[in-house]
Design a protein that fits this description.
With about 325 residues, this protein is of the alpha/beta class. Helix content is about 35%, strand content about 15%.
């Protein structure tokens, strides 16, 4: 990162970019750099969630975004950052991320042809001192020692003390902090999200903005599929979206234990483009991970939407040997 983009130097026209006329200005960078996500022209923003994310960028609010898998939580933050030319880095808080990965550690490095031991900052320390938006993915799956490192950053000033270095880091004025999760911090009662946990409520209390993102309305999902999969005809897309809605309704009623997300919808459409068979494409994208006892219901919903039987058996791909 260069000094030329050390701070936002312009403002975003949110009414034009996001179709959201807001009562406060949203700072932005005039030029992108290597850590700015690539904009996705097919992406569709949800107004309430986008407003919450823009609050984070404009007013340095800590934003916690939760919702079901494949609903576009991380993508929403990344795509807002892409429109603002704001550098953005995602960190997945899986079980292998340690405190040292975030803070840093002493390492042996080569200086002037000699081996010396010096402190090498972790990704969080690096980002704190730069105009970067950090997105902690799978926040409700983080290790306790890692979570307490983050907790200090959730304060209004967010200074980080490096005990080994006798140093206190003050965040860059353009540093931003976001988190995404499948739960609202209360744990998972559905059994869908193994590895998640109830979060420390003292820490949850420090998030300035908590918002939820469910699956998009049918018209938005149709727009996304039409934009990303132009080879699919409108009727097929309409039936796919209707089928997805019925499976989600069945999940809500407790009849299905698997959710068909927007991500799966896109995968289904991409599979159709590859193997030219709607049934086999669905089987590869969704049916094969459904419980055996629930597949007859999936087949019934498919028959209602496509007026065709979802045949049993392994996928058959004509012309591939």
């Amino acid at each position: 990162m260069t000094d030329a983009i050390s701070s936002p130097d312009t403002f975003c026209d949110t009414a034009h970019t996001f179709k959201l006329p807001l009562p406060w200005p949203v700072p932005a960078f005039s030029e992108p750099e290597e850590h700015v996500p690539d904009p996705d022209p097919a992406f569709r923003f949800m107004p309430d969630v986008t407003t919450a994310i823009l609050m984070g960028f404009a007013h340095n609010r800590r934003v916690y975004l939760h919702g079901p898998h494949g609903s576009g939580k991380s993508s929403h933050i990344e795509q807002v950052a892409a429109r603002l030319n704001w550098p953005c880095i995602r960190i997945n808080l899986d079980g292998h991320i340690t405190r040292a990965d975030l803070i840093g550690r002493d390492m042996v490095v080569i200086r002037d042809g000699k081996q010396v031991t010096e402190f090498v900052p972790g990704i969080l320390v690096w980002a704190l001192e730069r105009p970067v938006a950090i997105v902690f993915d799978e926040y409700d799956a983080g290790r306790p020692d890692v979570m307490f490192v983050i907790q200090r950053l959730l304060e209004s000033q967010g200074r980080l003390t490096l005990l080994d270095q006798n140093r206190v880091i003050t965040p860059h004025p353009a540093f931003r902090l976001f988190a995404t999760a499948n739960t609202a911090g209360q744990g998972d009662a559905t059994g869908l999200y193994a590895g998640t946990q109830a979060l420390n409520q003292a820490q949850m209390d420090r998030w300035h903005v908590v918002t939820e993102l469910g699956y998009m309305p049918a018209d938005r999902e149709r727009e996304i599929l039409q934009s990303r999969l132009p080879s699919l005809d409108a009727e097929t897309i309409e039936r796919m979206v209707t089928f997805a809605g019925l499976t989600r309704q069945a999940f809500t009623q407790g009849d299905l234990s698997s959710l068909l997300s927007l991500r799966t919808l896109v995968s289904w459409g991409e599979n159709i483009g590859l193997i030219k068979d709607t049934q086999d494409a669905l089987r590869l994208a969704f049916v094969n991970r459904c419980d055996e006892t629930e597949r007859p219901l999936v087949a019934e919903l498919y028959q209602r939407c496509f007026d065709a039987e979802l045949l049993r058996g392994a996928p058959h791909v004509t012309g591939i040997y």
